[in-house]
């Protein structure tokens, strides 16, 4: 969305995109506590993460666990923090509940599926493009084609609906998703990838989507006992002073990582020079999980699934890795 | 609202109002398990609770704790279940959070204040008419006049807003209350007592309030990281099959009652013949807590605060007590 200009107050160009990265600390400011030169870290950035060297406030930086690779670290923070806060803080995922996640094949979708598996007896309904089904079918309980009448399919399995809907789309899907909620169920809109409707910058197509979003009457929510929420991790971090809330989620996520209960899904690694091809892959919805820009990689795409060995060769690199954003993560760019 | 005809699909008149009661079991249907004749019980009713004898499905009936009086039992269920489910299931009240409650002097408001005191370090901002302040000032942390600019007053104390807003009003207050939410904060609309605008039945005034409720754009919620919810306990119970959810809340509330952490606030006891005067007291917003219709009481109002001894004299009565609804509870009548 940043690339297409589809955001409210886009920063002035030229700009460096990217909201998270990982690498090794090269220097620290005076009176900085908790970090030393040489520490392996991951960090949130308010833009500028697609770079060889980055500078960010200490509140946005986290030490990497010893057994986490740089490839994993570059794909960890935004996706898992967003998924965790939506499931456990905005909604209250508990044993026996059901979750519907749109873009189940995206990086946030895959993080949602993994976090759901940490709670007993949670049913996950995933919506994804057909061609991703083979790759992700084991990560969710039920998988539906985004072009099918998934509302009816879900209701066949769970007649009274679902407890939580995570929707990274917007527009016509909002009303459909709301109708699927059980009483006391929570619908969370965490982005608007439907807005990315064309290859070229198009404010008009954005505005059209924006106004097509159905507004919600609070009295209807009252009658139906429903909850509707919005979640923007970037706004929380960079506009609303939510560092401490995010830190609390990260602490819990790092424990889950060390218990080997969660692990980021990486689609592919790309050299900085290949950013155009990487973006095209996202635009075509071709990715499963996250694309990583590796500043020390030579310009030949390497699929994560092809050879885990080789992708791990990048682990010892001393330069930070930026990452780009899958379409599913686009909503966070704001 | 039932009395004024201010609901969507009012039942045909003549009707008997009332949604909860308590008393002693007179008879049970065949194959009814868990209850015997002579049990002291409280029950939810889909209308018809203002009566000497009532009949309701077993799923809506709960045994009274041994040390609970009938006066307490008649005021316990709806208020505490609504307050509990809103604070702990729709929102996730945790240590250190802040809660703003409108109509703090009403029965639900008082239940909210008591439940907040069971969680460490929770700040409660109460909004109530000035003349109630002396009576309820000890139940909340900060108390504001409903006619004052309480938004500014709350922001003076908590510059970044509050975590949870419980709003039994609607109309102009919705937008004001939403603006008070912290990021990730939850606004819950649990009724619409603003709709009770006149003494006479007035569909027009109802419809006008209805349309004045500001609709909410989900994208605004996304940008601001906010949650908006509606809660109607009666719809949950009688239209949406929520018995099991309510039972789970009741079980927890009865433990809190037995631990002496919560206790229903009773405004006054009235004879069935005094129902008109009792309703006027509610309409004038005169009550603190709940008004009880006591079927064995003679027609002279007895203020609960005047003599606890005397009000407890009704405990051994064998007839069920209906209860009427304070204005703050009117929203549940739907």
UniProtKB/TrEMBL annotation, chains A, B:
Its keywords, alphabetically, are: Oxidoreductase
Q: Where is the composition biased (Acidic residues)?
A: 312-323
Spans of biased composition, class Basic and acidic residues? 324-334
Protein name per its UniProtKB record: Enoyl reductase (ER) domain-containing protein
Region Disordered: which residues?
299-334
Q: Which residues form the Enoyl reductase (ER) domain?
A: 5-293
Q: Which InterPro entries match?
A: ADH-like_N, ER, GroES-like_sf, NAD(P)-bd_dom_sf, SV-ATPase_mito-regulator
Record flagged with keyword Oxidoreductase:
yes
Which is one GO molecular function term here? oxidoreductase activity
Q: Which Pfam families match?
A: ADH_N, ADH_zinc_N_2
Q: Which domain of life is it from?
A: Eukaryota
